[in-house]
């Protein structure tokens, strides 16, 4: 499949049964809801999510299930977040063999690599596969920034063509666009900065709260790209308190509570994560309940 790095791409949560096995029934329900809403791709194994708790075979199962559910309509993107280059290369190979259409790759985990080491890490992985690659640039959470100059080197490889831009510096979208034009696709990765990023020229949105609110997320994107900023902004302002649940160490628990509220997920997490409790649980539920009470009526965004 030819991968177009644009549109809304949910970084979907992993669904678990109470016995800590994969809940493929609820997983399928959520993926179908995303596809029905008009998302443009599915991202598996979110690095700030529960991917680090998954076994390699569990990741392969999720890829195969998503490929089957997507029926070739949208690309399936697997996240590669590993500590060693050879392990990352093996993970990329597994993703390819199990049907993934593209990869989202992070810098080395745990070790704070230098710029030279980071570029070489990406190049080694990209050279091992012909899958299209999106680099995940998130120095806030991972302490390694992929700078504009580093992208100059990385774009020498034909299959590195996109970035998930999560520096939280809106200006960086302009820097990247000014340097590379259309050579580099830019997808925002920060939910509460999504609309601003789209107005700055981002091509798409790797989203979190889309897992619970797929239609609203796609509507914002389509309105923004259709030149209807006022309507997009109105929905986005409603969405902002919910979107802020994505920028938290407990984003997985937050999003899963929202998925329960909209009927397309369960609250179950894999340890060491635990379900939210006490005042924090009350706070998150209040945000979700208020969002549901004031949920906007959407335009026919699929007709744009």
From TrEMBL:
The keyword Lyase applies. Pyruvate binds at residue 206. Keywords: Lyase. The active site is at residues 136, 164. Gene3D superfamilies: Aldolase class I. GO terms for cellular component: cytosol. One of its GO terms (biological process) is N-acetylneuraminate catabolic process. The keyword Lyase applies. It comes from the Bacteria. GO terms for molecular function: N-acetylneuraminate lyase activity. Belongs to the DapA family. PANTHER family: N-ACETYLNEURAMINATE LYASE. This is Dihydrodipicolinate synthase family protein.
